[in-house]
Structure prediction request, 439 residues.
Amino acid sequence: MKTIKITLIALLTAFIAKAQEPLTLKEALNYALEHKAEAKQATLDIENSQYQIEEVRANALPRIDAEATLLNNVKIQEMPLTMGGQTQMIPFNLKWNSGISATASQVLFNQAVFMGLKAARTAKEFYIINKDLTDEQIIEKVASTYYQVYQTKAMLRTIETTIASTTKIKDIIENSHKNGLATQIDLDRTKVSLSNIKATRQKILNAIDLQENALKFFMGMDVNTPIVMPETTFNVDDSGLLAENRIENRTEIHLLEKQKDLLEYKRKSIVADYYPSLAAFGNFAYQGMGDKFPWGGSPADKVYWMNTSAVGLSLKIPIFSGFGTRAKVRQVDIEQRKVDVQINDTKQALALDFKNAQKSLENALITIDIQKDNVSLAKSILSNIQNNYTHGLATLTDLLNAENAYTEAENNYTTAMLDYKLAQIQLIKAQGELKSLVD
Prediction:
C-alpha cells in the first residue's frame, strides 16, 4: 500500500510539473495537428480514399456468385396439348423444384473501369493535399491566437508594473498626508488612479482567459487544462521584406489543379461509354425436380437431377445514346473551364495577400521602431518627473500623466509586436511555408 501511494504521488508530481512547463508555439502546433477534429477528419478521408480505390479495383477483378433455390409448386400450371383430335391438360411442372448454380465473370476490357481506377487514385492524392490545406489552416489559427495570448500577457506584465509603481506613490503620499505634507485631494486622486489601473488589470485577466480558451479550442485541448506561456520576447526579422512571391507553392493552387485532374478523369470515364466492352463468363447449374422433396432423392423416389454448364463471351457495342453522352461530356468541359477561372482568380487573390502581408510587415517594423523610441522616451520622462515630484518640482498630475503615458507606450509597443507577428504569419502563409513553423 505504501508503494502504491509513493507511485501515485510521483505520477501526480510529474503531471503537475509537465502541466507547468511553458507551452512553446511549436508544441502548440504539433498538439493541434494531432488532436484537432479537422485534422483527424482529414486523416480519415485519406484512409477512406484507399477503400474507394479498392472498391473501384473490384470491378476489374473476377466476380463469382452462387445461388440456391427451393420451390414448392402449390398449384402446378397446366398446358393444353392436342393429340389425335383430343385435347388434354398436361402438367407443366412437378411439385418440387430445387437448384444450385454458380456464375463467374471477368471483365476483359472496359474503358470506364480503367478510368475509374485512375480517378480513385487521383482522389486519394486530392485528399492528401486537402489534409495539407487543413493543417495549414489549423497552424494559422493556432499561431495567431498564440501570439494574441502572448501579447495580452505582456500587457498584463506592464499593467502590474504600473500598479506597483502607483502603489508606491500612494504609500508615499499617504505617509506625507499623515505628516501634513500632502493634501487629501492628492491622496484621493492617487487612490482613484490606482483603482482604475486595477480595473484595467482585471479586464486584461478576463481577456487572457478568453484567449487561452480559444487557443485550447483551436488546439483540440480540454479547456480545463492549464497552460503556461514562455517568458521570452518576440524576435524581429526584416528578411521577409525581401521575400519573393511563390504562388506555385500554395496548397490552394495544388488542390484546384488536382480537382481539375479529377474532372479530366470524369470526362474520360464518360467518353468511355463510346467504347465497346468485353467480358468473359461461365456458369454451372445443378437442378432437381420431383413430386417429393428433392434433397436426397433419387429416380427411384421419382426425383430427377440434371446439370448444365456454359462458358462464353459478352461483347457490348454502344451505337446511339440519344446524344446523352455528348451532353455529359460538355457539362464536364464547363466544370473544367470554371475551375480554370477559379485558379486564375485564386492566383490573383494570393498575389494580393502576399503584397498586403509584405506591406503590413513593413508597416509593423516601422511602428515597432517608433514605439520602441516612445517607450524609451516615456520611461525617461517618467523617471525625471518621479525625481522632480520627490523634490517638490512636479505636480501629482504630471506624475500620473507620465505613468499613463509610459503604460500606453509599453502597450503600443506590445501591440506593434503582435501586428508584426501576425503579418509575419500571413507572409509565411503567402509563401506556402506555414509548415515550417512546425519543423
About this structure: The chain has eight helices and six strands. Residues 63-109+276-317 form a domain with the Outer membrane efflux proteins (OEP) fold (CATH 2.20.200).
